[in-house]
Amino acid sequence: MCVFWVIWSRPIERVIVEGDYFVISNYFTSRRAPVTNLAGITENFSIRPPTITLHFEPPTPFGKRVRIIPPAQGLFIFDRKGFDEVAAFLRSVVNDRERL
Predict the structure, then answer these.
(1) What is the per-residue pLDDT for 18?
(2) Are 52 and 90 in contact (CB under 8 A)?
């Protein structure tokens, strides 16, 4: 079970938006990626906690895909409203990029 948890959580990153950049951290190092590099998102509800995968083009220093866990009310309590707000914001960023 421990090995599964390590493999599952390895690609999870911390992502903060600062102006026109995402600050992406693997909890050891942080790198900035322009918001305009976000090419798409994928929502995954089949696992707990649900995750959102950010797809970047060109890739970030952490790769083409960065997986995040949106805010939750607790370790096992899923906050659908918080998840939907984060997903809507990220979709708007992708849509703004496509208009350019």
Answers:
(1) 93
(2) yes
